[in-house]
Every structure is written in C-alpha cells, then in structure tokens.
C-alpha cells in the first residue's frame, strides 16, 4: 500500500512538472511574439 501511494505521488509530481514546463514555454513564446509585433509596428512608423 505504501508503494502504491509513493508511486501515485511520483506520477502526480511528474505530471505537474511537465505541465509547468509547457506553460512557461508557451508564455515565453507569447511574449516573444508580442515583442516582435511591437518591433514591426515601430519599424513601419519610422
């Protein structure tokens, strides 16, 4: 029973870690695209 609980906690922690990595990666991409849009807009208005 203790092994089962430990396994479930390990799987839950791994899942949370992987989803956090995807979230941070996605946020980084969104910020980068926003920065590119601002740069492009500034270049057009020179």
Automatic annotation (TrEMBL):
InterPro entries: Entericidin (IPR012556). GO terms for biological process: response to toxic substance. Keywords: Cell membrane, Lipoprotein, Membrane, Palmitate, Signal. Residues 1-20 form the signal peptide. It holds the Pfam family Entericidin. GO terms for cellular component: membrane. PROSITE patterns: PROKAR_LIPOPROTEIN. Belongs to the EcnA/EcnB lipoprotein family. This is Putative small secreted protein. It comes from Paraburkholderia rhizosphaerae.
